[in-house]
Amino acid sequence: MELFSLKGKTAIVTGALGLIGKKHCEALVMAGANVVVADMDEKKAEAFAASLGESHGGLKIDVTSKHAIEVACDKILTRYGSIDILVNNAAINDMFENPALAKELSAFENYPLESFQQSLNVNITGVFLCSQVFGSVMAEQRSGSIINVASTYGMVGPDQSIYKNALGEQDFYKSAAYPVTKGAVVNFTRFLAAYWGSKGVRVNTLSPGGVENNQSEFFIQNYSFKTPLGRMAKANEYQGALIFLASDASAYMTGANLVVDGGWTAI
């Protein structure tokens, strides 16, 4: 099991306070890494890091600000001395504050330009900037693993029918922003893998499927029906894949897209 050990490694997880982000952090801790919990709320990030153990830390990182990332990078290097793993997990997935307007606003014909641009800024530019700053440290060290979290929707178009309720009415549409940005992440991974391969920096994509998280019963049923395993994922079911990509267990793997989706994209 030494292949999967991350003992003595320093790992950064962006968007770390989200449902899957917390599970990513917990997995890295279990494998022995020192984990930097990075999110927009520094106090909550610090509190969650403290719950993981005293060797872990929380930082506020705005992934759209190169300056903020550089400041965080200096702090991390001062404390830990190296940066070995970067999990680019921060992302925007559309949420509509007013459910009554969700259908209207999520329709492509009406989708707000500012929402699209915000997703581009966080989901793509954020991955670019974090990789540029933290990955450059890895390139200088001549070792490191970058894991870009994408989605099944980075490979296939959304099936809008799963967002219909029990009466067959469309509650909302999956917007263009998420699939467009996640598709970009998949190919950005390939670029970085080719660019930094000679520096010993491995770059891979983890593409998860949908996670059950108190969604409407009709949605869970619709989603499960389209998945060979017949269910949505549990939040902790990406932990093994993450440790694999972060560790020497995947030492000869770069530029790949590891799909963990219960078979969603297989049919």
UniProtKB/TrEMBL annotation:
PROSITE patterns in the cross-refs: ADH_SHORT
Keyword Manganese recorded: no
Keyword line: Oxidoreductase
Pfam families: adh_short_C2
Top-rank taxon: Bacteria
Signal peptide range: none
KW Ion transport (keyword) present: no
Family: Belongs to the short-chain dehydrogenases/reductases (SDR) family.
Protein known as: SDR family oxidoreductase
Source species of the chain: Mucilaginibacter sabulilitoris
